[in-house]
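Schema walk-through. Below, the input block comes first and the output block second. Nothing else is stored per chain. Lengths vary across the set, and this one has 135 residues.
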Amino acid sequence: MLLGLSCRYSQEIILTKPTRLMIRESHIIRIATKSALRECIRVAGMPEEEIATKSGMTPSILSRILSGKRAISLPELYAFAAAIKVSPLTLMAEIDRIKPLAAQLEQSHRQISKAAGQVIKHLEKEQLRLTSPSS
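--- output ---
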């Protein structure tokens, strides 16, 4: 069953509309979170390994969070904030600031994917028309 897969798109295909919206919102939050955390790391000027150690995470877990492959828990968010010496509220405000941009990015991605699919479909039809024998 496709539902067990971790692929976001396979879940969207078979789930009801309210659930799809929740999955998209979760994805947008994850994009905003990873962007905010990366910006905080850049400003702090600390290596990721040091931040991971100070926040009680393994470098692998932090890497998965920063790549968007794993969500960050609230205790991890607080530990991360403490490791880079910022208020958790400041970190959450940064995530909220980025969220609308992440939503726009996600919508643009969907529009581009849809347009690309239409172009491919058109090209396939055109190729069939050109390769079919003339009557």
